[in-house]
Design a protein that fits this description.
It is a single chain. The protein is mainly beta. The protein folds into two domains: about 300 residues, Jelly Rolls (Sandwich), CATH 2.60.120; about 140 residues, Sandwich (Jelly Rolls), CATH 2.60.120.260. Helix content is about 5%, strand content about 40%. It contains three helices and 30 strands. Strands 1, 4, 5, 9, 14, 15, 16 and 18 form an eight-stranded antiparallel β-sheet that branches. Strands 2-8-17-10-11-12-13 form a seven-stranded antiparallel β-sheet, with no helix packed on it. The protein is globular and about 65 Å long.
């Protein structure tokens, strides 16, 4: 999806302008129609007060709290000036217009746009004036030194409810929780080299959280700017808009190569390894003094416009739906840290029905609501070169010999591909595979079997997807193995 907010010249461009559209450019109109059809009735759109946790959660065993804000205080108060800077207007002084993203709102320090609610939450609320001007708020931490010590893990986390608005009424809403490299302050023209970690982004009221990394040069470069390296998935359980969810980013310097990881409600959905970057790119992104954190709700701009396929917000967009933040916290592990566990200990039983959206990690796919029997979610937007990983899959002592997967495809004529089962690596030996082409629609499901090499024991399982064309060719709901 082209980014109309950015110049075509290869000059460095401002942060936040292009959160993960490498996959969005392949989103199907039918998928958006399905999401819109799930919109709540108008009477259900206004968010009820969300319960706040009593305090920032205690540090996990082996971790210590570096910094945090629980947003306690009287209703109508601004967030702590000791912790936060409130950004104003349409850009930093001397920085790009419209914050470099094409967003249209004016940021203010009006308590109507940004304030505590007296219940332990921060609310950032987009509003529209009688003249049609949109206003909202953006805040950033005064501290700009968030970075793990050598051999440790830094965990940045927020418990957030996205604006509770969906369908046409949500067009243009762009809530975000993110981090920028500290050298950006006062410079404004060194992005994306200094790094950007998008911990939570969402647009247009879709039940999807996106996590994205920006780095290197623009356009192109190792982070495929201005797309970035990203992934997304639906929020577990309740929709992102209807409930609080916990969004977490980890920067792990306890392993070699280092890792960057994104989670929602403790579920890992995106991983980027240091090994995919040259030394200069990694050093520019991680070798400076650290990062500062941001919370904002933009209106319109490159991301929501690109997803909608037209300019946003529109006359149908309804103002007044806040992003609600219970807490923001930063923890650091002790020496060596504690390795994350996702899924929980015990992994997967190969003979059970394994839901595709419960993957341990993935590359290139999305998660969306499914209309298949039983409801829930399916993995979507699958194309050539994508993969999903499942850790600690127990095949048992008796060999499994058959693989079955629940798949659907709305691919155009001539578009097809292979679903392949591999062990221990996305390029590991192929145990078995099957071909899939159009099944009559992206939600027209069928169960397809394949014989596989007899397999026992516990393994890391990869499903890889291969096609001779770049277009999406399959959706995956679940799979299982039998003897």
């Amino acid at each position: 999806m082209p980014d109309t907010a950015r110049p075509s010249a290869p000059a460095p461009t401002p942060p936040g302008a292009s959160p993960f559209r490498a996959r969005i450019r392949r989103w199907r109109k039918a998928a958006f129609a399905a999401v819109t059809a799930l919109a709540l009735p108008a009477a259900a759109l206004v968010a009820a007060p969300a319960p706040a946790a009593a305090s920032i959660p205690p540090p996990p065993s082996g971790w210590s709290l570096v910094w945090g804000d629980d947003f306690d205080g009287p209703a109508g108060a601004l967030p702590s000036a000791e912790n936060w800077i409130i950004d104003l207007g349409h850009g930093y002084p001397g920085g790009p217009a419209n914050w470099g993203t094409g967003e249209i709102q004016r940021y203010t320090d009006d308590p109507a746009n940004v304030s505590l609610d007296g219940q332990g939450n921060l609310r950032i609320t987009p509003l529209r004036t009688a003249s049609g001007e949109w206003t909202s708020a953006r805040i950033e931490t005064r501290r700009a030194d968030f970075k793990p010590a050598e051999g440790r893990i830094l965990r940045i986390e927020g418990r957030i409810q996205m604006p509770n608005v969906t369908g046409d009424a949500a067009l243009g809403y762009w809530p975000a929780f993110w981090a920028l490299g500290s050298p950006y302050r006062g410079h404004y023209h060194n992005w994306p080299a200094i790094g950007e970690f998008d911990i939570m982004e969402n647009v247009n009221g879709l039940d999807t959280v996106w996590g994205v990394l920006h780095c290197g040069v623009n356009p192109g470069g190792p982070c495929d700017e201005s797309n970035g390296i990203g992934a997304g998935r639906a929020c577990p359980g309740s929709a992102c808009q209807s409930a609080m969810h916990t969004y977490r980013f980890e920067w792990d310097r306890s392993v070699t190569p280092n890792q960057l990881r994104w989670y929602v409600d403790g579920r890992l959905y995106h991983t980027v390894s240091q090994s995919r970057f040259d030394a200069g790119t990694w050093e520019a992104m991680t070798g400076h003094g650290g990062y500062f954190l941001l919370l904002n709700v933009a209106m319109g701009g490159a991301f929501p416009d690109g997803v909608a396929g037209f300019g946003t917000p529109t006359a149908a967009t309804v103002p007044g739906h806040p992003m609600i933040v219970d807490y923001v916290a930063v923890w650091q592990s002790g020496d060596g840290g504690t390795a994350p566990t996702d899924p929980p200990p015990g992994g997967f039983d190969a003979r059970s029905v394994i839901q595709a959206e419960d993957h341990s990690a993935q590359s290139g796919v999305q998660v969306e609501a499914t209309t298949d029997v039983g409801g829930g979610y399916n993995v979507s937007h699958i194309a050539d070169g994508d993969w999903i990983r499942f850790d600690d899959v127990d095949f048992g002592a008796e060999p499994v010999r058959r693989f079955q997967a629940r798949v659907a495809s709305g691919a155009a004529a001539g578009i097809s591909g292979l679903v392949r089962v591999r062990l221990d690596s996305p390029t590991g030996p192929v145990l078995g595979d099957f071909a899939i082409a159009d099944t009559g629609g992206w939600q027209n499901w069928r169960t397809v079997p394949a014989d596989i090499t007899p397999t026992t024991g516990r393994h890391t399982l990869y499903l890889t997807f291969e096609s001779g064309q770049p277009a999406d060719f399959v959706n995956l709901n679940w799979f299982t193995f039998t003897s």
